[in-house]
Write a structure and sequence with these properties.
By secondary structure, the protein is of the alpha/beta class. It folds into 5 domains: 3-56, no CATH class; 62-229, 3-Layer(aba) Sandwich (Rossmann fold); 265-322 and 451-513, Translation factors (Elongation Factor Tu (Ef-tu), domain 3, Beta Barrel); 323-449, NADPH-cytochrome p450 Reductase, Chain A, domain 3; 525-674, Rossmann fold (3-Layer(aba) Sandwich). Helix content is 36%, strand content 18%. The protein has 21 helices and 22 strands. Strands 1, 2, 3, 4, 5 and 6 form a 6-stranded parallel beta sheet that branches. Strands 13-10-17-8-9-14 form a 6-stranded antiparallel beta sheet, covered by helices on one side. A 5-stranded parallel beta sheet has the order 20-19-18-21-22, with helices on both faces. Helix 17 links the parallel strand 19 and strand 20. The structure holds flavin-adenine dinucleotide (FAD), NADP nicotinamide-adenine-dinucleotide phosphate, flavin mononucleotide (FMN) and 2-acetamido-2-deoxy-beta-D-glucopyranose (2 copies). Flavin mononucleotide binds next to helix 4 and strand 4.
Length: 675
């Protein structure tokens, strides 16, 4: 996320006129005036045409656009590019650039979106240069938003990259079909274009331990680089601060960030297009509990996007920027004995860096901890390592160093003490009483708080000005007897509904997906979504109903839904019955898992109806959609379809796998899953 320097967006003051106007000046002034009048008159029109939107937003910064010039000017050899959505790849890139210092090599981090990537071939102009790519994968093996242009360039426009030295670290999650697809593609494509791979592709798996994958990859990568450059490693990982604390004592309160994502006061001057760097503040118009019983809280929210020009399709995701729990922030302030209202900036010690601050500055510690920093995810091992120096009690310090080490014992300790115990930074501070780091260093080390995605539970055909969300509030007890609460869902749960005089808003933007109803509205649709996995199907059903109203043919539409108890958490029961009555939903199969001795899941019902389903799939071109839990449900359902193909299609297992793969390639087997 580019927190580009705030000042950079403020235009230069106009030069004052000197003396009388000459004839030439008058002509010039007239032309400018004419252009201005034209612009004022026609500006509105231009803004209404979506294609022009991008052009009318101001360029973010005045910084150096040429990568090579910048590297030359600032004496860098290593450039680390990141393709990142939620900040992990960006954080890893920062750490790699920081590591380089230990070897006397100067590195820089670069957002591919901010540079002209066609300059990559010119890296050969810089002696001993290396391009490192930290690339995350999303969706169906897609690049992150900020790597989209780079990806297109690689596919189409890329030039000869002979002489360019590179390496790739891929970030992904094994539970997804296209594991690390983007990292693998960049690695393969750069080689095809003639570049030299100086170190093997690293494969990071978020489902196991991404941090560990990264650390062991870079522990082997750096010696290889040293050999490449002929330099000596300085050994010990030293703790180098990247940012310097500046405390503001005399500052205009208008210049302080109070939770805006990027541009100062952007929340008051809402301007489209809205995206990750410029979210829209959508008023909450409905916030209702969906379940009738049980100890959980499942909710239905509606966000008003009137006037925002935001467009969405059923199947897209809405991203929401949450705010942390004030109680946790207060406790951190209390335990570290600091005044949270102190106004500060953390300024990058590397003045050439594009990233001046780790989060929008100047701000207060309270704002940073409430809005910008992730204070509830388990701290990574590098954070434990860096913080260890502030544990005054030697056994506690040793405990922290051990958890950060790569020994099997250290890894095991980190796994159990941090991950399995779900300790957040506050729990770490509480359980290590001698650990009292300066709050500014803590703020430097915490990752950025990232947006949460929700599958949109409405159709824009029916609700063009409203986005519906169906979510379950996360709350669980850890083995240290703490109650951990999910950041976004608990924040959303307590969102009051906007009414006259009271405004309650959610910073959001839309992320497009590939999860779409069949192009031909007559094709049969099979929807499988237990629990909150029902969300996108509410949008699909609304859309199907709308198609019918328009007189369009709508194919057979069957739903497989599951919940715990019929009279507790049967979400949208009334709405589903309405759709059935109207003939939109041909068939609703519901698995109540806990209403009888033996568990019944959606896949049991799929098996029961296998003949009918197979006919829809194999002879009637049905489209299959699966939404919800990625960890178990999606995999179990996929196995059920393999069984079906084997049994009813007379296939061997490998053929069945191929069969489903082909459906996926044709867009007839789509998943919208998370865990
Ligand atoms: C593409 C996509 C679509 C999504 N759509 C929806 C949707 O439609 N509806 C919906 O409700 N969610 C959806 N999610 C999930 C959603 O984005 C959030 O992850 C979820 O709401 C939790 O966010 P949170 O901030 O409340 O929790 P966080 O503060 O992020 O905490 C979540 C973490 O808590 C831990 N945790 C949670 N439960 C337990 C437990 N029982 N035991 C131990 N640890 C636990 C896990 O480590 C988990 O990662 C979607 C996710 C993606 C990626
Ligand atoms: N982090 C975790 O440990 C964890 C655990 C569960 C869910 N989740 C997440 O929460 C999301 C949605 O949860 P939710 O509250 O909406 O769902 P939910 O209400 O917990 O579950 C919906 C239904 O799915 C059933 N189910 C459980 N395992 C299944 C499987 N392997 N195949 C098919 N059905 C199965 C459940 O049965 P039973 O519950 O009776 O078995 C229940 O009837 C999931 O996508 C998942 O990512 C996380
Ligand atoms: C919605 C979503 C989709 C994902 N899709 C994939 C995928 O297709 N393949 C994969 O290997 N990893 C996938 N991942 C995992 C991410 O790539 C991984 O968590 C990565 O560390 C994120 O990096 P970032 O924080 O820099 O964005 C997905 C994660 C999410 C949340
Ligand atoms: C790339 O690496 C090779 C050796 O592996 C080296 O000879 C060459 O100079 C390097 N290229 C650049 C541009 O640094
Ligand atoms: C990916 O990794 C995260 C982090 O460890 C894990 O919680 C999640 O279950 C994995 N799967 C998905 C689909 O995010």
């Amino acid at each position: 996320m580019a927190d580009s320097d705030v000042d950079a967006t403020i235009p230069e003051p106009l030069m004052e006129g000197e003396g009388l106007l000459s004839t030439l000046d008058i002509i010039l002034v007239s032309i400018i005036a004419a252009v201005l009048i034209y612009w004022i008159m026609f500006r509105k029109k231009v803004e209404e045409i979506p294609e022009f939107k991008k052009l009318t937003t101001p360029a973010p910064t005045t910084q150096e656009k040429s990568l090579i010039e910048k590297m030359k000017k600032t004496g860098r050899n290593i450039v680390v590019f990141y393709g990142s959505q939620t900040g992990t790849a960006e954080e890893f890139s920062n750490r790699l650039a920081k590591d380089a210092q230990r070897y006397g090599i100067k590195g820089m981090v670069a957002d591919p979106e901010e540079y002209d990537m066609s300059e990559l071939s010119r890296l050969t102009e810089i002696d001993n240069s290396i391009a490192i790519f930290c690339m995350a994968t999303y969706g169906e093996g897609d690049p992150t938003d900020n790597a989209q242009e780079f990806n297109e360039w690689l596919q189409e426009g890329a030039t000869d990259l002979e002489g360019v030295n590179f390496t790739v670290f891929a970030l992904g999650n094994k539970t997804y079909e296209h594991f690390n697809a983007m990292g693998k593609y960049v690695d393969k494509r750069l080689e095809e274009l003639g570049a030299t791979r100086i170190f093997d592709l690293g494969m990071g798996d978020d489902d196991a331990n991404l941090e560990e994958d990264f650390v062991s990859w870079k522990e082997q990568f750096w010696p290889a680089v040293c050999e490449h450059f002929g330099v000596e490693a300085t050994g010990e990982e030293s703790s180098i601060r990247q940012y310097e604390l500046e405390v503001h004592t005399d500052i205009n309160m208008d210049k302080i960030f109070t939770g805006e994502i990027s541009r100062l006061k952007s929340f008051e001057t809402q301007r489209s297009p809205f995206d990750t760097k410029n979210p829209f503040l959508a008023p909450v118009t409905v916030n209702r509990k969906l379940n009738k019983g049980g100890s959980r809280h499942l909710m239905h929210l509606e966000l008003d996007i009137t006037g925002s020009k935001i467009r969405y399709e059923a199947g897209d995701h809405v991203a929401v920027y949450p705010t942390n729990d004030a109680a946790i922030v207060n406790q951190i302030g209390h335990i570290l004995d600091v005044d949270l209202e102190t106004i500060i900036s953390l300024n990058n010690l590397d003045e050439e860096s594009n990233k001046k601050h780790p989060f929008p500055c100047p701000t207060t510690y309270r704002t940073a901890l409430m809005h910008y920093l992730d204070i509830t995810s388990p701290p990574r091992t590098n954070v434990m390592y860096e913080l260890a120096q502030y544990a005054s009690d030697p056994p506690e310090q040793e405990h922290m160093r051990k958890m950060a080490s790569s020994s099997p014992e250290g890894k095991g300790l980190y796994q159990s003490w941090v991950l399995e115990s779900h300790r957040n930074i506050l729990a770490v501070l509480q359980d290590l009483p001698s650990l009292r780091p300066p709050i500014d260093h803590l703020c430097e080390l915490m990752p950025r708080l990232h947006p949460r995605y929700y599958s949109i539970a409405s159709s824009s055909k029916v609700h063009p000005n409203s986005i519906h969300i169906c979510a379950v509030v996360v709350e669980y007890q850890t083995n240290t007897k703490r109650i951990n609460k999910g950041v976004a869902t608990n924040w959303l749960k307590n969102k009051l509904v906007t009414d006259n005089g009271h405004k309650s808003t959610v910073p959001m933007y839309i992320r497009k997906s590939q999860f779409r109803l069949p192009f031909k509205s007559g094709s049969p649709v099979i929807m499988i979504g237990p629990g909150t996995g029902i969300a996108p199907f509410m949008g699909f059903l609304q859309e199907q109903a709308w198609f019918r109203e328009q007189g369009r043919e709508v194919g057979e539409t069957v739903l497989y839904y599951g919940c715990r108890h019929k009279n507790e958490d049967f979400l949208y029961q009334e709405e589903l019955e309405q759709f059935q009555k109207a003939g939109v939903l041909t068939q609703a199969n519901v698995a109540f898992s806990r209403d009888q001795e033996q568990k019944v899941y959606v896949q049991n019902l799929l098996k029961k109806n296998k003949e009918h389903l197979w006919k829809l799939i194999d002879t009637e071109n049905a489209h299959i959609y699966i939404c919800g839990d990625a960890r178990n449900m999606a995999r179990d359902v996929q196995n059920t379809f393999y069984d079906m193909a084997e049994e009813l299609g007379g296939m061997m297992h490998s053929q069945a796998v191929q069969y489903i793969k082909k459906l996926m390639a044709k867009g007839r087997y789509s998943q919208d899953v998370w865990s």
